[in-house]
Amino acid sequence: MDGHVATPQLTAGPPAARSRPRVVDLFRAALFLGTIGFGGGLSVLANIQAYVVTKKRWLTDREFTNTVTVAQMLPGGASANALAYIGLRFAGWRGALAAYVAFVLPGLAAVLVLAWAYVRFGTTPNLATLLGGFNAAVVGIIASITLKMVRTSVSRLWQMGVAALALLFSAVGNAPPGEIVLVAIAAGLAVDLGTKRARLASVRRRRKTDLEPPVALPEEGQPLEAAGKPPTPLSSPWPAAVFSVLAAARITGVDADLLQMGLTFFRTGLGAYGGGFAIVPHLKSVIDTRGWLTDRQFADAVAIGKLTPGPVLLLATFIGYLRHQLVGALVATASIFAAPFLLVVLAGSTLDRLRSRRFVRAGLRGLTPAVLGLMAAAAIALGDQLAGESEIGIAVAVALTLSRFPLNPALMLLVGGIARLCLRMVGL
Fold first, then answer.
1. How far from 427 is each of 64, 389, 390, 394, 423, CA to CA, in Å?
2. CB-based contact 421:125 (threshold 8 Å)
3. Which of 328, 76, 100 is nearest to 316 (CA)?
């Protein structure tokens, strides 16, 4: 709501008989994938594809491509959404919940350990220096993703205008990501369906890949494909569960600050299109307004969210721990992932049926440049916290390296931290 824009090459699925996973199988698979899910974006989606298509044969290549497409249409991490949708397909909402929770668990445990260490040792010079290198590397990672999106995903003048406006309203106007996304989708619909209706009618009669670049988001796995047979929509108890939780909070008098934090992260999750980095500017503005963290603590939260396996949205876990220890971490985590998960369960099947429709593609063409603008705003917001030429140099070096070579971003985080320690030892 973390990514690349290159398209992975999916291998042909084996013709052998396919198996149907149980809820426990989905939980184990997602737990394993969450444990090795460093780097985010394509690296995690490639791991999922290798596991569910090649190893377990739960899905065909085409079905996995369709799954990733649906995952991209919703806020939150594409990898977590994809696993939840796979669980929904085979075992209903219980399978979706098992896969989603299991994927997030390893990263949640890692962030909790790091948050505890941060609270206890975070003021020591060496750790502060190491985190400064991580922060610089994160800025470089976001910048590299943004540059790749500019080259591969934004090819039209009006899309560049949407990206520029998204950057302006996010960085200067502190507009919520959800509002920016809705306006951008409306722009895509207006341009593609209004002013270019005649051209689109002609495009429908040709191969899409011959005329238009694929619609790409930071965590995409494949361009949009033609629709296949969707899973059957399933009922869910979640509306009643949400109402019960809110009623219990009101009756028991839950700490007002804790409840406010939960609602804040729930709204943040609703606007987390393109992964966790896209919500950084707005979340930072909200946290600054409420005085929850210092600028440096927030930058450290983003760096730790990227360093650990799983979605970057786990930065909420770190922030929650700093505010209210373990209870705050659990509330923040559940809140920021609740909206993406509920949307997968409630809207996933519908989106599967609609994903190849022209109006959906038109909306995504507006969404893509908006995410680009939000990513650029995130790089600016975090870049303001860099201390001195050393950290700026690390950020630039990481951005240039990842723009040229397909390296794992988690590896570049470690390199950035070590480089900052080395520079400190020589007095820089």
1. 51, 12, 10, 15, 6
2. no
3. 328
Distances (CA, A) of 173 to 55, 170, 281, 411: 48, 6, 10, 34
Cα Rg of the chain, angstroms = 21
Which one-letter amino acid corresponds to residue 333? T
Task: Please choose, from the candidates 158, 397, 140, 178, the residue with its C-alpha nearest in 3D space to the C-alpha of residue 281.
Answer: 178
Residues paired with residue 219 on neighbouring β-strands, in sequence order: 4
> How many other CB atoms sit within 10 Å of the CB of residue 337?
29
List Cβ neighbours of 173 (8 Å cut-off, separation of 6 or more). Answer: none
Q: Which residue has the tokens 């946290």?
A: 287
| Token pair recorded at residue 357 | 């429709």
- Cα–Cα distance for residue pair 182/185, rounded to 1 Å: 5
DSSP one-letter code for 219: B
As given in the structure block, the two tokens for residue 157 are 């003048």
Please list the pLDDT of the chain residue by residue as tens digits (428 residues): 444 444 444 444 444 556 789 999 999 999 999 998 886 666 788 889 899 998 989 998 888 888 888 887 888 888 999 999 999 999 999 999 999 999 999 999 999 999 998 888 766 667 778 888 888 888 888 888 888 878 877 778 888 899 899 888 888 877 888 788 888 888 888 887 776 565 545 656 565 555 555 555 555 444 333 334 444 444 445 455 555 555 555 554 556 888 899 999 999 998 888 777 788 888 888 898 888 998 889 988 888 888 888 888 999 999 999 999 999 999 999 999 999 999 999 988 787 777 677 777 788 788 888 888 888 888 888 888 787 888 899 999 999 998 888 887 878 888 888 998 898 888 77
50, burial (CB in 10 Å: exposed 0-12, middle 13-18, buried 19+):
middle
Instruction: Classify residue 51 by its DSSP letter.
Output: I
Sign of CA dihedral 117, 122, 124, 127: positive
Distance CA 154, CA 365 (A): 8
Only one residue has tokens 């950020």, namely: 395
A 10 A CB-CB count for 242 gives: 13
Phi and psi angles of residue 219, each rounded to the nearest 5 degrees, phi first: -110, 30
* Helix, strand or coil, per DSSP, at residue 4: strand
Distance CA 310, CA 81 (A): 12
Helices and strands, counts by H and E, the chain: 17, 0
